[in-house]
Amino acid sequence: MPSPVSPFRTALPAAAPSPRHERPPLDAALAPTLSEIAELKRRPARLQGHRSMADEGFRRAFAALMAHEDADEVAVREVAAAAAQIALAPVNGPQLIAAGLDPDDRRVLYARAAARSLGPLDDDFAASLADALDGLAPETPAFHAVDLLCSQPRGGALSEKAARIVRPPEEMQSEHAWCVAVIGALLQIRRGLSPGNAFLTGLAHHLPDAYALPGRTEDAMPAAESQRAATRALARALDPCPAPLATAIESAMLRRHDLADPGAEAFVAADLIDRVLQQRHYANAAGFSLSDAMDAREFVTAPELQDFQLDILARFRLTF
Questions:
Q1: Is residue 16 part of a domain?
Q2: Residue 272, beta-bridge partner list
Q3: SS (H, E, C) the chain
Q4: Residue 3: inside a domain
Q5: pLDDT digits (tens, 9 = 90+) for 42-94
Q6: Tell me, what's the pLDDT at 138?
Q7: Has residue 273 been placed in a domain?
Q8: pTM for the complete prediction?
Q9: Which residue range(s) make up the domain with 111?
Q10: Is 292 contained in some domain?
């Protein structure tokens, strides 16, 4: 792999600098690809016991991080895996193996599929991607919080003024977290920045929910006690992790809403984009409008993030 930021032979063209930031802006031209990534929540997984390709990616990414792989390298591999899967789904690695395609042919097929969104891949990186998609990459057993999030349905958009909107199939915390991680990493790669922090934040941002109280219960608690409960839950979730990984996740969680940090900025955008895309799916499935799904629900959240989030909704064509 030539670098942890760009595993691609042909670099993605840099977005023009934003007058608001010295760093390049998040590229709204990726919007169609981001929609396809979110659909991997509803594509069947390769392995029995895994719900979807997104759920499987969540498990695979945490297994790699637990095996001490670098977050940047895991991020770019998961981005490429997502790009290959959106081109190939519902065909998967085991089906290609059963059909008799030899390893070289599968590697070429995966690389060409990923290149649809990302451009040509470096040869060594293409081989690593093939291992992951074939199901041959070594795995470290997932720690308990990962297993819990893989079986924990998300509550849907919450508001005291409106009922939840949840339609089958249920979205699991694992699926949302992986999509946010991959979208955030791709936004970073697209503007030539390291994807590791955005990816790690997205992957880990619901770890406290494995052991925390339900959201509305926490809302009724004093803010200080709610924060202490979340801190305890994160510490419990991270207890089995290698110390460097636990430290990196704790640091990423602390600054996840700091828009001065480019990785946090990509995470905030990715989290918003995936949550709205999930509402779009519900709207399409149930025959109501995205406006019906989003009116009176708080997708644009903390005041300090509001201007940025409204700008993301407008530029990524998610307004209603």
A1: no
A2: none
A3: CCCCCCCECCCCCCCCCCCCCCCCCCCHHHHHHHHHHHHHHHCECCCCCCCEHHHHHHHHHHHHHHCCCCHHHHHHHHHHHHHHHHHHCCCCHHHHHHCCCCHHHHHHHHHHHHHHHHCCECHHHHHHHHHHHHCCCCCCCCCHHHHHHHCCECCCCCCCCCCCCCCCCCCEHHHHHHHHHHHHHHHHHHCCCCCHHHHHHHHHCCHHHHCCCCHHHHHCCCHHHHHHHHHHHHHHHHCCCCHHHHHHHHHHHHCCCCCCCHHHHHHHHHHHHHHHHHHHHHHHHHCCCHHHHHCCCCCCCCHHHHHHHHHHHHHCCCCC
A4: no
A5: 888 776 667 888 999 999 999 999 999 999 999 999 999 999 999 888 787 88
A6: 59
A7: yes
A8: 0.82
A9: 28-150+162-315
A10: yes
Write the pLDDT tens digit of every residue in 264-318. Answer: 999 999 999 999 998 888 777 766 656 655 554 566 667 788 889 888 988 888 8
Q: What is the CATH number of the domain that holds 106?
A: 1.10.3210.10
Domain count, the chain: 1
Q: Can you name the residues that pair with 8 across neighbouring β-strands? A: 121
